[in-house]
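[SOLVED] Predicted holo structure with adenosine-5'-triphosphate

Edit: marking solved, answer below. Original request kept for reference. I posted the sequence and ligand SMILES and asked for the 3D complex as structure tokens.
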Amino acid sequence: MTAAVVAEDVRRVYGDTTALDGVSLAVEEGDVFALIGPNGAGKTTLVRALLGTTDAEGDVTVFGTAPQQVERARLGSLPQSFDPPARLTARELLDYYGGLYDEARSVEAVLDDVGLTDDADTWYEKLSGGQQRRVCVGTALVNGPDLLVLDEPTTGIDPAGRRALWRLIEDLAAGGTTVFLTTHYMAEAERLADEVGLLADGKLVARDSPDALIADHGGESRLVIDTDAEPAITGDLDYPAELADGQLTVYDVPPEEIGEIVAALDVAGATYESINWTEPDLEDVYLDLTGQAVTASGETVSRGETPLADGGQRTDWDGSKTGGADR
Ligand SMILES: Nc1ncnc2c1ncn2[C@@H]1O[C@H](COP(=O)(O)OP(=O)(O)OP(=O)(O)O)[C@@H](O)[C@H]1O
């Protein structure tokens, strides 16, 4: 395979701030690469280094040449902040941006891609925040690029719109477009990316397929049961477990063994209300590598604030008790 993007030892320093501290990566043609990491980690700076819009040290090549020398029609990019003229309609904006290229896709096709056909004739300023973001994504698609660089493309877009955009990105990648995106949504990275890179303090601290990252850093599966069981129940189980606030969490239970845990509760005379088994995912990887958990709303909280870490006790394989924060 050929690399569409190669970065070697890329550094960018702003005054006293080292935004990028020696980042190296390669993105194969046709792959989707998702860059994740906390606020201020350097994601936007790396995007700008790859596009050649910031003066970084190190080597960057895009399709084998310096980013500034790549044929413009081959590149599509969406900056994190983008304010197009507010008193143009979605259709006019896409027409305008398409006019910057010798050959552009039909505006109707791009409107359809981003789900704006029905609102095509509304002024940009009258669209909702999520609809505006879709217009912005559309501007990156007008030239049918070979490499699409998207800085937080789905921020502000509602769940249905986000899923529609995920399908679009999957279709584009299936058609051979290389996609480099940044995101704070772990589900987005997990679903779309062939490779995920985790940037922290300007360094790429992990880079692999979502499955490999989850296997290496995701931790165990979890069986969570709302129950009135006594704390001693954790000693009756064949798996590491903790009980806190009426919630029993059992780690590493294969799905076919869930019945054994339920039977142990029955034997102990405990009742239970709900049973939930979850496999580790990219959010667990993020938690493990950054110490920040991702909440349902997409916000991050420090590890010490997570419910399991707060006062929960866990029985480990050797029978010793550890707080959840030590997981
Ligand atoms: N033009 C600039 N001048 C000075 N400092 C900058 C500039 N751009 C970025 N920085 C600093 O570089 C660091 C990385 O910023 P960057 O915007 O790349 O992070 P990010 O990972 O994209 O963050 P976020 O998730 O919040 O968008 C931050 O400390 C930021 O304050």
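OP edit: Residues 159-174 form the longest helix (16 residues). Thanks to everyone who chimed in.
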